[in-house]
Amino acid sequence: MHFIKGLSPKTVGIAAAIITVTIWTAFIVIARxxxxxxxxxxxxxxARIGGASMVMVPLGWxxxxxxxxxxxxxxxxxxxxxxxxxxxLRVTVITGLFGGLAYATLAYSxxxxxxxAHASVLLPGSLPLWTTLLSALVLHDRITxxxxxxxxxxxxxxxxxxGASLLHxxxxxxxxxxxxxFMVAAMSWSVYGVMARRHALDAVRATVxxxxxxxxxxxxxxxxxxxxxxxxxxxxxxxxxxxVFQFLFQGVGSVVIAGVTFxxxxxxxxxxxxxxxxxxxxxxxxxGAVIFLGEPLYWNLLAGLVLVTVGILFGVRGVAPVAIKNxxxxxx
Length: 332
Description:
Helices cover 77% and strands 0% of the residues. It is mostly helical and 332 residues long. The chain is globular.
């Protein structure tokens, strides 16, 4: 902490941006590479939830008890799940269901059907689309002409990528299943973001809440499905190095570290510039898939990538800064 305090705000902001973009990019590449490993998508979801829980559950316990020691604190009575979540039960369930359970299981399952290049376009690329539509529906936000133009680019990019796999669905191809899972996962995360904005949630408390809910709901369900033979697990058969790495990267890295550094980006660069910086993720992750995974970058993927990136940038220019800031503060 003393080391961080000794750094200039600019240095902290730049470092936070590099870390965030690196982790978000690596998440897509590593998740796809994990398909060739020993773990199932349900194992990966457990690694994400379990890894994050190692940090967030003790933090939640501490936050709740600190709040209770200060009755005048606004969050002193808003705790749930045996005093581990610093939010009310209703808000914890809503945010945990969409931002924890649904996102993790849908996204990881998608990588077992579709390549990382598709995820590069459809996961981070469709977030502005779903968030805009949900914000207009739930929060009555106005969609400006410039933002609508950006959304048009995003839809066109998504159709270029997903449309090709849909055409092969009747030929027995399964890539379309992954594309669909990526789109629904992005929509799920957008629901979480909009709910976080609606309830004006603090980023740390929201992350603690979704982690605690995911831990208490996913682990029992996962164990029951394993006992019934509905799903399979390779956690006990996989190399310990692989298991430990997934717990650390998927949980501590993707959830905890990226959550903190993203918030630091907002504090220094502001919401608009931050969103423009994270627009690098689709391109970098697609490039990473080509370099590290040997995936081909067909013309439709490249064109879709360009359209989605342009759409994100147009969308950022067409939205009020406070709107992005509020959504971002609830994000991972």
